[in-house]
Amino acid sequence: MPASNAPYPVLPGRRYPPGATVEDAGVNFSVYSRHATGAELLLYESATSPEPFQTIRLDPRTNHTFFSWHLMVEDLPPGTHYTWRLEGPNDPHGHGWRFDPSIELVDPWARAVNVAGWDRWQRQRKGVQPHDSPRAIVLAEEYDWEGDEPIRLSSEQMIIYELHVGGFTRHPSSGVRHPGTFLGLIEKIPYLKELGITHVELMPVMAFDEQDVPEPVWKAGLRNFWGYSSFGFFSPHPGFCVTPEQGTHRREFRDMVKALHRAGIGVILDVVFNHTSEGGAGGPTLTFKGFGNETFYCLDAIDKGIYLDFTGCGNTVNANHPLVTNFIIDALEYWVREMHVDGFRFDLASAMARDSDGRPLANPPVIWGIELSDTLAATKIIAEAWDAAGLYQVGTFPGYRWMEWNGRYRDSIRRFVRGDPGLVPEIATRISGSSDLYEANLRKPINSINFVTCHDGFTLWDLVSYNRKHNLANHEGNRDGTDDNLSWNCGTEGETPNLEVLTLRRRQARNLLTLLFLSQGIPMLLAGDEVLRSQQGNNNAWCQDNETGWLDWSLMERNAAMLRFVRGLIALRKRHPSLRHRHFLAGRPLPGGEIPDVVWHGLELEAPPWDDPESRILAFTLAPVCPDEALLHVMINMSDRALRFALPEIAPARWHLALDTARASPTDVVPPEDQCPVEDGRQLVRSRSILVLEGRSASDPSAIQPT
To answer: Which residues are catalytically annotated?
Structure first.
């Protein structure tokens, strides 16, 4: 860096593109601010430099065009850190303006940010101090993708695995060189590949504020672990990088993506565009509040000092303002074009379907803009189709290509498996792709992301071990997290040495996942559920960056039987295209077929108990989709007694036992080469269990080889 008496020369620069762009002549800087009256750019050697080595005041006559402030700094090297300061009117209640020239701002388009000098709680206690903000970094490194391209897998083939980058490898038992990082995740790719999943869905990896927690939580030594508090939408989170002080954010993230793609695994990002870490009126000014508060946030129509909060996090992004819509789509296209990601899951996506006054829009521009973007055309887009203010759009989320986290599926399966009666028609609809939600709107089973657990709520093991949440460790008085878990503890709350209870819990866990992977639509598995990870009844571990929130890799040995079961279950799904229809089942033969695509049964053939309010049983037969696929027959008994189900006779096939959730490992899931034929025309299905048969000619074992 130059001495203070030898500053870098400055040229007018240009307004496009926004952010910091390295060019032959230097670095072009540009930011949006409609109402700012003055601007300064501060340049630092590093994130910890106590003072900028150069402060450049922009001239409104030469460095201001339309709504942009811009300049070119000649010969400025990559690695330079920078912030902005803006002058302008401060009228939060009348116009929503919150300009404050004492606050340094993070460039919203920054490709990398560094938070080494940021202390949210000192800012809260002492007010703004000189140079106390996070800083952006100028990046220009070239990257060799070595021919990598995003994964192009048809949606019905997807098996999603939701994980937290930090929590996945931070436990000492992970044994990786760089725990809790993008590079640490690379070392666990062989495990993911052997499990059989096709995509990882990464909880937020865009730069977020780990200090964004309520004061009692912070005083307890906890922090924002999950990361639903973004402020740098173009930057990988520095906390997941090994050397963020060197600006290696993009390289480390790209290394992870490239390695996953080499293993045939796609990358979906959980993105948070519904709110930001700046919070409400009492939250800090980091970026958007200082550049254009009235543009980026939904504000009360009468008192613009009040932030409309449809997210439960203090503010709501004004996503359908033209500039904000463009910002969001620009960010998404950047992650696809420059970072090679394969899809996005949008947190509280229904908040993005509201206008600036909070009213739901029939055709929100940002939602349709994402759907129709050419750059995003082959990208998976998934909505959490609700928000925190009661807008619930599962089955009605705007657009056609959007997949949805199917909360109806989760709730129905949980209730059925815990033993609630009278759900048979509902369960048949969920298993067959939720046509009641999607078919009338010209959508398909692949619009449904099926899940029984996710990061938000009980883990699978806790779902069968607790009747109520146990969140006192979050230091919010056990008020946080849902009280409606639809769980069943199998007779005892929490940990127990009772072998009978533990055996039932393991069976219930197998039942839940078996239904998940036998359902039409796209299954999503929560990381750690395959080895029965517990959070000790905490159903909202958002601030638990500790063993509660981490994956303990010793569980792979301790619960090896469950891991084996899940691998076998995924393999079963993969060898049956009949579990992966793109179109809804019709009860008619497929083209060229002889038997209906699905036939529903009860204890007797073709007699499903649709009208029995006490029934807890269901069976169905799936016809093969292709000549080398086996028939599939499934019998589900969630009652508390063993029952005998009639088996259909479909010559020349013979039924072979593929899966029985009531059996102990290794006979609970049986690979094709080890399966035994079923001799009896009626099959005993034990209480609270599921039995799956594959039908094929005994003389043709190749008929069930994986497709």
So the answer is: 347, 384
